[in-house]
Design brief:
heterodimer, A: alpha+beta, 4-stranded antiparallel β-sheet, 9% strand, disordered N terminus, B: mainly beta, 28 strands
Chain lengths: 648, 302
């Protein structure tokens, strides 16, 4: 800047005046400048060579060229001479090291800041002086140059300060970085420690909250333990609760191991006994045909000797029962030997049975005889029929079998007309208790008019009863004894579920759902729950055969009423009740989309979900709950406007 | 196990679709089953249980069948003899309606949430969810391939016409705002729509109207008295409308009613026409009525 200003200044001066003083001033200025910078030196040099050239311009020819060459060579020599001492100078002065300088100067940022203020002030002062000198247009150029030189020196110092400041900043930064590194390391260690603390705390919590399995174990009470366990174990355990628990567990384990070994011994003994029993049974079975032959022979001897009857209970049964009833009796006796809840009885008029058998009941002669009688006159047929009924207890074989399962007696009777076996536990034939024990087995399969005539008085001709009377299993997949077990289980289950139905119906009659469904937001209440004789379903759904039918009335919060017929299956809750919904304004599942969906949900989707969750016992509660939570809408018109709701 | 009697009592048929060659009929019901019939013999060839709770739509794309409804959207592989086997589930979002734009390899559909989804059929991924176009359940959609348009109808009362190429709305119809169609006591919802060429038929809460799409004008009112339309089918000659009174109405484009034929179902949910000219009507029962020249020729059942 100074140089350019000078140039400008020199240019201007050159243009304004061409006096010799000015030229001298310019030369002096150039000389003074040459000491400040190398560039200026070069300029001065160039100016000098120019001046030399200008002076040598008029010399033309070989001599002049030689002189110029010599001068050039001399100049080069002088330059090489100049370079050599520079190297010596370098050797004299060791390599400049800023850091050392900084250390020597003992510079701090505060010092730099102070020096900076001073230098800036100095520069300002010099600038003011220069300006004043220039404005004064004094001829004292030396003082101007002096001031300017001082200003330039101050600027150099400023630059030095700047350099120091940068170095100090760098040092500070490095230091900060090092400190930060150390700090990070410490932080990391702290975090690791914190994590370890947290982990240990959670471990401690886990340990404290550990739900040991021993809490669920039923152990010998502490008092019993103290009495039964050896004294040294008890003494050790008294010190604290933990030791006590450990001791009790140890004692329990020892006791259980003892018991286990005892059980194994007993099992082995049992197995041995069973093997013996099996062997004995096998021997007995071998004896059976021999005994049978002997019995027949004995009975023959008894007949010859004029003594009536056969030997033993089975002998009596064989004497009075028909073949199907005998097989049912035998099956009952077999069951009673294996199950404590089954007992078998043979009831009825033995004498009449023997008479009937003697007349050839089992060979079909009675039926034939009756058919012949039917062809006779009305009077004689009536008389004959009356006699027959008197003799056969109104169409039944005089002796019947009773299986007592639990407290419920199940009677097996044989119809004298069609020879079918009828069974039932209920006193009233209108309310059979064993209908549909197995798939659709309503006991109404026969189309025999005669059986229809008698079936109103007692029971049904169930397939399972007929199957028992055959003495064989229905398929090769199971044995006869397994089939009998299955029937007894099914009957037991039926009696149990029948009690459940009664419970649920009682609850509903009290206008309460059998199961409390707090998750359903119900907007209606049950106003009536009563038995019904009719069941109407516009969707074509039929009520369960031999099931119970009820009608439920529900009043919603908006005063609208909804009704539903409910058919409860004899296999409730295995089969979900069938609901048929309608409203007071004759809307039903066939003419209203929403009611269709409600019915579909109750009868189809709900049972599928309940069965999957093994909650069929809640079926009727959830079905009626669904009716209670659904508002009646008259505006539902499209299939999609009523979105399915998750009711379970 | 649910007794067959109960299953049959509550079976409704929501979707019927013919295969491209017209030889196979796919029927979707409310139990999530697809029943397949051979059209030449009208004989049941397969009954397939899908993963869906209920099937509302069946569309065909290349050699796969896409079924949608309550429980999502699933693909089913179709063999050469027309039988189907299990594919994969595309989404679990419920769908009421969908259509395939074969040229663009995309499926466009929507359901109870009112969101219109675009699914890339090359990868079976949802590539776009349009939540703004409809404010309520999307009920029905229909394609007019010859004009490069399709329409979607919603519970909110709007029917949007879309450009197939850009998939942008080009026109919106609001039938409930038309005085001639408005039935305020029923609401503004549109339950079904159908497009043929430049013509759109739609109805629901409002009466059924025939609209000219380009001009946006109501051309005719198709009078089905107090009934509510549930399904529609348009052919170049006829417009068929199924309602909630176990009948199917037939109209000409000039608005004149040609006939009213009885259906087995109280609510008619689907009307289709076979390439042989049979009209198939299904609804809230398991029976599908087949009509030939307006006379019931046969009944199928699922």
């Amino acid at each position: 800047m100074v140089e350019s200003k000078d140039k400008i200044r020199s240019g201007r001066s050159g243009s304004t005046s061409s006096s010799k003083d000015d030229k001298k001033d310019q030369a002096k200025r150039k000389l003074s400048d040459s000491g400040s910078t190398a560039d200026k030196k070069m300029k001065i040099d160039r100016s000098s060579t120019k001046s030399e050239k200008s002076t040598e311009k008029p010399v033309i020819g070989k001599l002049a060229r030689q002189k110029a060459a010599e001068a050039k060579a001399a100049e080069e020599k002088s330059q090489t001479k100049k370079k050599a001492p520079k190297k010596e100078k370098d050797n004299k002065f060791p390599k400049f090291q800023e850091n050392k300088l900084l250390a020597e100067e003992k510079m701090t940022l505060e010092k730099i800041s102070e020096s900076y203020s001073v230098i800036v002030k100095t520069i300002k002062d010099h600038m003011i002086d220069i300006t004043d000198l220039k404005n004064a247009k004094t001829e004292d150029t030396d003082s101007l140059y002096q001031t300017r030189t001082e200003a330039v020196i101050a600027i150099s110092t400023l630059k030095q300060l700047n350099r120091f400041a940068q170095m100090l900043t760098k040092e500070s930064r490095d230091e900060t970085k090092a400190i930060l590194g150390r700090s990070d390391g410490v932080n990391l260690k702290l975090q690791n420690l914190q994590y370890q603390t947290h982990h240990l705390k959670s471990e401690i919590d886990a340990c404290l909250g550990f739900n040991s399995l021993h809490k669920e174990m039923v152990m010998v009470p502490e008092e019993t333990f103290k009495k039964a366990a050896p004294q040294d174990i008890v003494d050790k355990a008294v010190s604290c609760d933990h030791e006590m628990v450990k001791a009790r567990l140890g004692w329990e384990l020892a006791q259980r191991e003892e018991l286990k070994s005892a059980v194994e011994e007993v099992k082995a003994e049992r197995s041995k006994i069973e093997n013996d029993a099996s062997r004995v049974r096998s021997n007995l079975n071998d004896l059976r045909p021999q005994l049978s032959t002997m019995l027949e022979a004995a009975n023959g001897v008894r007949t010859i000797l004029g003594l009536d009857g056969t030997v033993g209970a089975m002998g009596t049964a064989r004497e009075v029962l028909t073949d199907p009833l005998l097989k049912i009796y035998k099956a009952g006796r077999a069951l009673s030997q294996t199950r404590s809840d089954v007992k078998v009885l043979m009831e009825g008029d033995h004498k009449e049975a023997i008479e009937l058998k003697a007349k050839g009941f089992e060979d079909g002669e009675i039926e034939q005889e009756e058919e012949e009688e039917e062809n006779q006159s009305k009077r004689s047929r009536k008389k004959s029929s009356k006699d027959k009924k008197d003799k056969s207890t109104k169409g039944w074989y005089p002796v019947f079998i009773t299986w007592k399962i639990g407290n419920k007696p199940i009677k097996f009777k044989q119809n004298i007309y069609n020879k079918l076996i009828f069974a039932e536990s209920s006193e009233s034939s209108a309310t059979p208790e064993l209908s549909c024990l197995f798939n659709d087995d309503t006991g109404r399969q026969t189309s025999n008019d005669k059986s229809d005539a008698v079936k109103t008085s007692f029971g049904r001709s169930y397939k399972w009863a007929e199957q028992i009377a055959t003495g064989e299993a229905p398929s090769n997949e199971e044995t006869y004894s397994e089939y009998l077990e299955k029937i007894v289980e099914a009957i037991n289950s039926r009696f149990k579920h029948s009690e459940l139905v009664d419970e649920h119906v009682k609850s509903l009659k009290d206008k309460k759902l059998p199961f409390h469904l707090s998750e359903l937001m119900m907007t209606g209440v049950i106003t009536k729950f009563e038995e019904s004789d009719i069941y109407e379903s516009p969707r074509g759904l039929k009520p369960y055969e031999d099931g119970k039918i009820f009608k439920v009335s529900i009043q919603h919060i908006d005063e609208k009423k909804m009704y539903a017929y409910i058919s409860i299956s004899p296999n409730y809750p295995h089969n979900a009740p069938r609901i048929s919904v309608f409203t007071e304004n004759d809307k039903n599942a066939a003419n209203d989309v929403q009611l269709q969906y409600i019915e579909e949900h109750c009868n189809l989707r709900l049972p599928i979900r309940l069965r999957a969750k093994d909650k069929m016992i809640e079926a009727i509660s959830r079905q009626i709950g669904t009716l209670m939570m659904q508002p009646i809408s008259a505006k539902v018109t499209t299939r999609n406007r009523f979105h399915p709701v998750q009711l379970l | 196990m649910i007794e067959p009697e109960v299953l049959n009592a509550y079976r409704s048929v929501f979707a019927q679709t013919f295969s491209r060659n017209g030889t196979t009929l796919y029927i979707g019901d409310n139990l999530g089953k697809i029943t397949i019939y051979n059209v030449n013999r009208w004989a049941k060839t397969q009954e397939f249980q899908t993963q869906l709770e209920s099937i509302q739509l069946i569309v065909e794309y290349k050699n796969i069948l896409i079924a949608g409804g309550i429980g999502g959207l699933v693909t089913l592989l179709v063999s050469e003899d027309g039988t189907i086997s299990k594919g994969k589930r595309i989404t679990s979002e419920s769908y009421n309606t969908a259509l395939v734009l074969e040229e663009h390899d995309v499926l466009i559909g929507g359901g109870p949430r009112g969101i219109l989804y675009t699914i890339d059929l090359n990868v079976f991924h949802i590539i776009k969810e349009d939540t703004d176009s409809h404010k309520d359940s999307i009920q029905c959609s229909s394609l007019s391939e010859e004009r490069g348009m399709f329409c979607t109808a919603s519970e909110d009362g709007t029917v949007h016409i879309w450009d197939m190429k850009s998939q942008e709305i080009i026109r919106t119809f609001l039938p409930f705002e038309k005085e001639e169609l408005n039935r305020p006591e029923r609401g503004r919802f549109i339950s079904c729509c159908s497009m043929i060429g430049d013509w759109l038929v739609c109805g629901g809460g409002p009466r059924v109207g025939l609209w000219h799409v380009r001009s946006g004008e109501l051309a005719n009112i198709l009078d089905i008295e107090q009934d509510t339309p549930l399904s529609m089918f348009s052919s170049p000659e006829r417009i068929f409308i199924g309602g909630s009174r176990s009948v199917v109405y037939q109209f000409q484009r000039n608005g004149s009613k040609i006939s009213t034929v009885d259906a087995s179902s109280q609510f008619v949910y689907s009307i289709q026409k076979s390439c042989k000219g049979h009209m198939l009507v299904s609804g809230s029962t398991r029976t599908i009525d087949i009509y030939k020249n307006n006379y019931k020729a046969q009944e199928l059942s699922v």
